[in-house]
Amino acid sequence: MKQFPKNFLWGASTSAFQVEGGYGEGGRGLANSDMRFIPEGQADFKIASDHFHHFKEDVALMKELGLKVYRFSFLWSRIMSDGHKVNEEGLHFYDQLIDELINQGIEPLPTLYHFEMPYHLIEEFGGWRDRRCVDAYVAYAKVCFERFGKKVKNWITINEQMCATTPDDMNGNLEKDDDKRHQVLYQMSYHMTLAEKITIGLFHKMIADGHIGHVVAMQSVYPATSDPLDVQAAMNAQDELMWSFLDLSIQGSYSHHFTSYLKKHGWYPEMLEEDQKYLREHPDFIGVNYYASLTVRAKRKDDDTSHMPPFFVSDQFYVVRNTKLKPTEWMHFGIDPEGLYMGMRAIYDRYHLPMIITENGMAYSDILEDGHIHDVYRIDYLEKHLAQVARLVDEGYPVLGYCPWSFVDLVSSHEGFGKRYGLVYVNRTNTDPKDCKRIKKDSFYWYQKVIKNNMLEG
Ligand code: BG6
């Protein structure tokens, strides 16, 4: 039996563009996610899980589950339809959601930026590649702090810079030339960091009794063999995929090795002297998103990378299968709870900031059988990962809480509605939105018991 601390924040996560829907309603503007290329037969983001119309029912389910905290995000395009003009109806929607949560005793934990932005900002100046996006984000954050700051005390700036800057049509980095694409990626990332840091300074002035955090796509990287070249490839991957983004966001500068890597390629971002005073700001906590570990070997000239997501394509490493881990339907790298432990240990020992798990979950094409979902595989996944969280807590690491991804089924960031993560089933398919009825899965009842007992059995 593993007991959790008295104030442990049991939560669950979603993100607005993946769950909300309500396309074209309530004065909402066009978002980058609305303009994304959607492969035939895959759900788009226009209805999603229809949380926009089901939010009261969803909050009632959260209450039934026993959640202490709900991690969600604001849709920037709902609050500022063109990225500049404030939409009162959009703010009103979030007022209602936040009030509903607070009335049910659930703490709101909003993320300001979870991959989504008003499309107009991409049309106007190319989104994050342009410095004007920094001002737009800070102005948006200020509107949110002013409106919700009295009742919402814990916030998140930006979700997963690694994925948010990855070359694709969501963020406007579709440069054909590889060199140029990387240069844009690191400039975008720098602008995000600058925006975050200015916002953190503003936050601490405006909501002095609050806390604001940064969320990382945590990578635990293993070398495929003990060949020193593979070991170096693993160090480099860890650097490129995680430490680079985190070092900049937390410490305001890259490591020596990563600085020299970027300079050698001509990818070091343009930074202004006047930015230095902002770069000293740092978040109050780190949100950790973790799904699986990564295994790499040294890169060879003829390696085929055509099947890899863009962020795993690099001249420093090559991603391979880990033969010790068993791949599952959607989790191609295999399930690895130990990776959660090792990654969080390394993050804490580098930055010494409190941590909260903001995402951790198991994708599966769940099947409805006589009105039930018997997702034993998800229970097994969550149980094993929670055991590692308990281990960290036991060793004295400041882990504030745990938010599995996702509260309800939602549209995957790039693989449609068939890839389900939810504790609650949403009755729709990729091509047929049906009634979006909510059905509690077995994992819902399992998690409810864990929360109630504040303890993991076994
Ligand atoms: C995280 C994102 O990277 O992974 C989520 O923050 C995303 O938005 C989740 O949904 C799972 O990834 P995917 O691609 O399966 O949806």
Automatic annotation (TrEMBL):
Keywords per UniProt: Glycosidase, Hydrolase
One GO-annotated biological process of the protein: carbohydrate catabolic process
One cellular-component annotation, GO: cytosol
Classification via PROSITE patterns: GLYCOSYL_HYDROL_F1_1, GLYCOSYL_HYDROL_F1_2
Pfam families, A to Z: Glyco_hydro_1 (PF00232)
Positions annotated as active site in the UniProt record: E359
GO molecular function annotation: beta-glucosidase activity
InterPro entries: GH (IPR017853), GH_1_N_CS (IPR033132), Glyco_hydro_1 (IPR001360), Glyco_hydro_1_AS (IPR018120)
Family to which this protein belongs: Belongs to the glycosyl hydrolase 1 family.
UniProt-recorded name of the protein: Glycoside hydrolase family 1 protein
Lineage, uppermost ranks: Bacteria, Bacillati, Bacillota, Erysipelotrichia, Erysipelotrichales
